[in-house]
Design a protein that fits this description.
Length: about 450
């Protein structure tokens, strides 16, 4: 690690730069500051530095107090100025990796970030990519851009991949306590990355290459996607057989070995599980290998909002009401409980499908009071509403998409005509069970 150590010039702690102050970058930057490392956080959004400077959080699962604690260290600087990265020892890139229009990887944010780094890249610096992507991205896509500076990766500067493992809203694990994988182009690159992350992360695990670290992350998310697809398919089958899949999963979970419970839902959401497996299937085509198992899982999970809409239709039909003209309220727009992230949320697809069938749809989410207009142009756009007995009673059907912990399910059932529950949220109600339709 001589080149990196030489850059530190005897300093015990590195200066760290973080590109992207979203769900991944902001918690990481704060942990470095709380670990007594000077940090420069850079984001293209002009509002983020303003809010952070005011000690305000723009992410619901991160309280203002936590931001204030990091800012009060005096070690966290936030800016839109990428030139500030010239003065750091390590640059960590934590930007989105979405899918394109044809479900192909879109590395635009990563490449643009690398170009910004290239403009200020210096000898001895470390550059780490955290964004989830397919194996080979760091070496084949990132390094050539950085080497356009005239410096040689692995010799003049260090490069590594360390996948983000954030789980927003998880009460048991946070940024510091989730083990960190690091894989560098060379052994020195790996050592440099492990050294830097040791100031923000309790456990750092070194692997032999960036490709291993890239494949590990995409394997983690594919594992979840495939198993969720399996239990979603079983849910549909169990419904046709008149069996409660939630009771089945609880029963199977009593086995102390050989079974890990996964739970069905209205479809996948978030930036990772619905997207990352497609990065792997895209890469697999270069090796002339079809990934049928992964692609089938994607098809099943993508079909689940349609199953929910069919259950809504069945529930309304049982009360002699058609979907066309019915008023439907969706509870929860976020893709998971107790956060304000609705990227890839199945709630949008359920909403648009119901609108296409002629329903009047509104929503409530205490974490997301307003959403942009739906992509489907209609004469009446859904609106966010506050919950009250009168409001609930005014809808023909209430559809539970996200089981936020703040919802009082018994109160919701008491005041609703019909509840279609996609999360088994109403399992504990004691009154009005006949109103609840599982989906």
């Amino acid at each position: 690690m001589s080149a990196f150590r030489e850059r530190l010039s005897g300093r015990k702690k590195p200066v760290v730069g973080v590109i992207g102050l979203g769900y991944v970058g902001l918690p990481l930057a704060m942990e470095f500051a709380l670990g007594s490392c000077p940090v420069i956080g850079v984001d293209i959004d002009p509002e983020k530095p303003v809010q952070l400077a005011a000690k305000k959080s723009y992410l619901k699962h991160i309280p203002d107090e936590r931001v204030a604690r990091a800012m009060d260290t005096g070690l966290l600087t936030v800016s839109n100025d990428f030139s500030l990265l010239a003065g750091v020892d390590a640059v960590i890139i934590a930007v989105p990796t979405p899918l394109g229009n044809h479900r192909q990887p879109d590395l635009g944010f990563v490449i643009n970030s690398c170009r910004e780094v290239t403009a200020v890249l210096q000898r001895g610096q470390l550059v780490v990519l955290e964004s989830t992507t397919y194996p080979g991205t760091t070496r084949d896509e990132m390094v050539p851009v950085l080497e356009s500076s005239g410096l040689k990766a692995g010799a003049d500067f260090h490069v590594a991949f360390s996948p983000e493992r954030e789980d927003p809203g998880n009460p048991r694990f946070g940024t510091r306590t989730i083990p960190k994988l690091v894989g560098g182009l060379t052994a020195e690159c790996t050592e440099a990355a492990a050294f830097v992350y040791s100031f923000a992360i309790d456990t750092v695990i070194k692997v032999s290459s960036p490709e291993v670290a890239e494949m590990a992350k995409i394997t983690e998310n594919t594992y979840r996607a495939v198993n969720i697809a399996l239990v979603n398919e079983l849910k549909v089958l169990a419904h046709r057989m008149g069996i409660d899949i939630w009771e089945v999963i609880q029963a199977a979970s009593s086995k102390p070995f050989g079974f890990t419970p996964f739970y069905p839902g209205p479809g996948l959401g978030g930036h990772c599980i619905p997207i990352d497996p497609f990065y792997l299937t895209w890469k697999a085509r270069q090796y002339e290998m079809p990934t049928r198992f992964i692609e089938l899982a994607g098809e099943i999970n993508t079909s689940m909002p349609g199953f929910v809409v069919e259950r809504v239709a069945e529930a309304l039909n049982a009360h002699r009401k058609p979907v066309n003209g019915s008023r439907v309220l969706i509870l929860g727009m976020a893709y998971k409980p107790d956060i304000d992230d609705y990227r890839e949320t199945p709630a949008i697809r359920v909403m648009e499908s119901l609108i296409a069938r002629g329903a009047e749809v509104d929503y409530n989410d205490p974490f997301i009071p307003r959403i942009p207009a739906t992509t489907r142009q209609t004469s009446r756009q859904p609106v966010g509403v506050d919950l009250s007995p009168e409001a609930l009673a005014g809808y023909d059907c209430v559809v539970v998409i996200t089981n936020h912990s703040c919802y009082d399910w018994q109160w919701i059932v008491d005041h609703s005509r019909i509840v279609v529950d996609t999360r088994n949220a109403c399992a504990g109600v004691v009154r009005g069970k006949e109103k609840v339709f599982k989906a």
